[in-house]
Amino acid sequence: MLRFTDEELEQMPLVEGALEMTAAVKPAFPAGWVRIQLRKLAQEAEQALMDELNPHLRLEGLIRLFYREWGFHGDHQQYFSSDNVFLDKVLERKKGIPVSLGAIFLYLARHLDLPVTSVGFPTQFILKVDWYDGEQQYINPFDGEFLSKHTLRAWLKGHRGPFVDLKSSDMDTAENSDILTRWLTVMKSALLREEHFADALRCSDMVLSFRPGDPHEIRDRGYIYQQLECSHVAAMDYEYFIEQCPEDPAAELLKLQVEALHEEPVTLH
Hints:
- The chain contains twelve helices and six strands.
- The chain is an alpha+beta fold and 269 residues long.
- It folds into two domains: 6-171, Roll (C8orf32 fold), CATH 3.10.620; 176-263, Tetratricopeptide repeat domain (Serine Threonine Protein Phosphatase 5, Tetratricopeptide repeat).
């Protein structure tokens, strides 16, 4: 579990929370190496942009540096790979997904005193720039392109249906805990796909530290326990989900699964 309070989590850079989170999920994760690489990037960015006093031009300079000169970009070919959620792999490959690339970009923007924050937009993680004159801009961290409200509205309609419109709450600055919870969910899915079940279980337990008692997360944890051949513990998680969400379409199928699991012999680990 994370070793700091909720208040401390919100005060620190998103990337620092991600490092602590990842180290808790994957004990061999080289968090110290990642911190060194991040500091090197921040120093290089400061050197490259030290003479640019205009904040708008400094932001454009950081985008150019990060995406063009350094070559960070979104991984279109293996979007759901765990390499795109672990920051050591993102830094090595210079490939990632919106949340991992965005967390690194946020870290650099903070070093350059740029007013960039995170937004947990319904379709993906994006960045918001709150300029001092009240103007707002939005950046897609997957490719560094600015996003118009028209584009964001189209994304939302594609995600939720044609009758949904963009609300101001969709663009609110997100808390680190919310972003890290979504990050953990993506990490867990990648680890399950790659059959790293022990790491996926630690992911699930950490999500539950942010969202205690979440029935859908407990259902997912039950599936992981089942893959780890912890049948009776899996059955307990499934039973909790059935009790909490009896109308869910999955509930009837899980009842059959629970019966089968209870018939299996107890495995001692």
